[in-house]
Amino acid sequence: MRNKRSSYYTYLDKTIIKDKLHLINSFMLCCLNVLIVFLSFLQQAPQLITTYDQKNGGVRTDVIMTNYKSDKNEVPVTLANGSTVPLVEIPPKDEEAGEYNPFEHRKLSHPTSDLDTLIHLLKGSLGSGILAMPLAFANAGLGFGLFATFAIGAICTYCVHILVRSAHTLCARRRVPSLGFAEVAEAAFLSGPQYLHQWSQFAKAMINLFLVIDLLGCCCVYIVFVSKNIKQVVDFHTESDVDLRFYMAALLPLLILVNLIRNLKYLAPFSMLANILIATGMGITFYYIFLDLPSPYERSMIVDWTKWPMFFGTAIFALEGIGVVMPLENNMKTPTHFIGCPGVLNTGMFFVVLLYASVGFFGFLKYGPDTKGSISLNLPEEDILAQCVKIMIAVAIFFTYSLQFYVPMEIIWKNLKHHFGARKLAVEYIVRIAIIIGTVVIAVAIPNLGGFISLVGAVCLSTLGLIFPAIIDLVTFYEDPGLGRFNWRLWKNALLIIFGLVGFITGSYVSIQEIINSEES
Predict the structure, then answer these.
(1) Model confidence, pTM
(2) Which of 3, 212, 306, 479 is the most buried (most CB within 10 A)?
(3) Structural domains in the chain (count)
(4) Mean per-residue pLDDT of the chain
């Protein structure tokens, strides 16, 4: 009798747990549907669909469509201005062709091999952020920093995976060979629930906006990087203490001169020089780091949790290279190898995370609480070799500014140039100079290197690298194939979005506090 009663209660407990799970899933779906309905009421105006103008070139935005429904493999998406991806003419649909394979329709004059793409991915991901990784570990601790770096690296890599997978699916549905990051967001909203179609242009604009803010924010960080390294060397030889802002202002004419170059081809030699200088500088920096390393027991394994948001912002600033992913994948000879197993992405990100974790771990182990915003600033000021490293890194980052500046300038100018007639070239130069002056002014206003890096990472890269890919994945597969058993796709993307939002809010708050406190002191 007791066994029967026990079995009955066990069955009853399982039933209650199952009902609770169904109730939670239903609540999540209800919230999602309420949000969709709310968005539909906020904007009932007909949406504006951009189309390719074969006669005049460029795009037209005078075609108004309402109740626009996108079904799989039926309606092509057209590419609008504001993108860094060239416009492509949509091939007509062949009813007898069957399933559309976007990779077979990519017409590339110089497609890159898997090895070339891997090299470009490493170059695109290994930037100035590696110099700030020891500071990130200082805000996390030696043990927790190592664990968290690999965890954030894995999450960032997974978000790139779902972004590229969504892009492949949307290319097949829309029957286009390739899509850029912003176009993927636009096509996802056009392929999702009908209530979201009118938000497709807004989604694309938000991606482009955060890309511009991110890249221009990086340009501001580069100005602080260069100025601080040059100041250390000059101050040592002149035995003076000139204000850091003076060096930033002195960089302005040189930045304007270099960034008036409009053709990316002419910037390639500077890119090669920057790569050589960074590689040499990092090699010498490792030499100094491994001299008389202290015991790991002399460093904190984990620090106070109030510093973790600074670690998050700095680490994601260093690790996140999502802006270069879609252009690299779109130019591959075999795009399916990009997210395969092991795949170009997994291989590249493994080495990137390993290198960043190594620099952060050993850099913090060497300098401890005295770790500065750039590990080069911790090198001995009186040593000639260390001074050469600082100059090399300063020159490399100076030229990297031009490469970072190119993409946001392209996005901004493509949205502005149709307002001007024959004066386009003169206006473009004026816009370039104005934006360069703006980055210098912001750098002068916020010379705190560590706080600035963390702020850019928390604001821009948590959205671009975590939140937006999760939203795109959710919207792309919302109807086909659906949310899956127990709505696992909804839960998974909700967790990614929450993680990104927590990092965004806490990282921004702590970074701004750090900047304000440094100014007061």
Answers:
(1) 0.76
(2) 212
(3) 2
(4) 79
